[in-house]
Automatic annotation (TrEMBL):
This is Zinc metalloprotease. It comes from Clostridium oceanicum. The chain crosses the membrane at residues 88-112, 309-327. Its EC number is 3.4.24.-. It is found in: Membrane. One of its GO terms (molecular function) is metallopeptidase activity. SUPFAM superfamilies: PDZ domain-like (SSF50156).
Length: 336
């Protein structure tokens, strides 16, 4: 049952993403031929006025098939006959919807469970923060000139310092102050600390919850780009990367831990799915975004046949990577 909940949660992310493409296609007067959740063989479908809504066997993605997005059409409602800015709005709507979903999920969690704010509620005597003059009521806003706006962001940034001295910026009475602090080691949790406790915000208002949702999503975006940076630097090993099998396994564990754990994981994956999709690689939304931006800036349209070949190759590469990652998930599963 937990695996079913995990698959449904992952399906929600795909539906929201594809719905972004779908609704903007409709708004721009583009004929949508298929709206599919899943890939591979068709399980069942419902034929609407002009769109067929499909459920397919493999729950690893989905797509919106528009008239003129694969083969050139002379129909005025075809995707290929729309202006670059209209096509751009359709493509970018998917990732934007995933970011919106991430914000909404985090906001719902905050409204029901509350959250931890980077406002200091207590300072441990004789610890580095107390020695540096930090007091209860101070708001932690930066580490080494990098802005933070969540408690989780503060903890993560502090852990990356590996115990080295850091410049911590805080706000007191609407004035910013910066102090240099050398963290100490928490042997129980094996992490760097400075001796401060966050403020627990309970019964959050709608405004506070939405602000929390935006802050959490911004934090995830930064961390995801940081992860990609580590990949290019060769600082990631196979145990740090997972595919569909790992997602379902981890989501199943989250579902077992409760609805809010599953919602938190879904919000994380939704934000990461948005970032992954804007990577400028053929067949991904990011590849199309670069193409349409090129058309808007230069006023030149690239050859549709050449673009089609490039996208086909890109899609084949993505499918090959998906297969390899799935094999890796089975042979070398992530420890959870």
């Amino acid at each position: 049952m937990y695996i079913i909940w995990a698959i449904l949660a992952f399906g929600l992310l795909v539906i929201v993403h594809e719905f972004g493409h779908f609704i903007m296609a409709k708004a721009n007067g583009i004929k949508v031929e298929e709206f599919s959740i899943g890939m591979g063989p068709k399980l069942f479908g419902i034929k609407g006025k002009e769109t067929e809504y499909l459920i397919k066997l493999l729950p690893i993605g989905g797509y919106v098939k528009m008239l003129g997005d694969e083969e050139k059409s002379n129909d005025e409602r075809a995707f290929n006959n729309k202006s670059p800015i209209r096509k751009l709005s359709v493509v970018i709507a998917g990732p934007i919807m995933n970011l919106v979903l991430s914000v909404v999920l985090f906001a719902i969690i905050a409204s029901f469970k509350g959250y931890l704010s980077p406002v200091v509620s207590k300072v441990v005597p004789s610890n580095p923060a107390a020695v540096a003059g930090i007091q209860a009521g101070d708001k932690l806003i930066g580490i080494n000139e990098k802005k933070i706006d969540t408690w989780e962001g503060f903890v993560t940034a502090l852990s990356k310092t590996k115990g080295e001295a850091v410049n911590i910026t805080y706000e007191r009475n609407n004035q910013e102050k910066t102090v240099k602090i050398t963290p100490i080691k928490d042997t129980k949790e094996n992490r760097s600390i400075i001796g401060v406790y966050p403020t627990a915000v309970e019964n959050a208002t709608i405004g506070q919850s939405l602000k929390r949702g935006v802050s959490e999503t911004k934090f995830l975006i930064k961390e995801t780009f940081g992860f990609f940076g580590k990949i290019f630097k060769g600082q990631i090993n196979k145990n740090d990367v997972g595919g569909p099998v790992s997602i379902v396994r981890i989501s199943g564990k989250a579902a077992k831990a409760g609805i809010f754990s599953l919602m938190t994981l879904s919000a994380y994956i939704s934000a990461q799915l948005a970032i992954f999709n804007i990577i400028p690689f053929p067949a991904l939304d990011g590849g199309h975004i670069i193409l349409f931006l090129f058309e808007m800036i230069t006023g030149r349209k690239l050859d549709d046949n050449k673009v089609g070949v490039i996208n086909y190759i890109g899609f084949a590469i993505l499918m090959a990577i998906m297969v390899l990652v799935t094999i890796k998930d089975i042979l070398y599963p992530i420890n959870i």
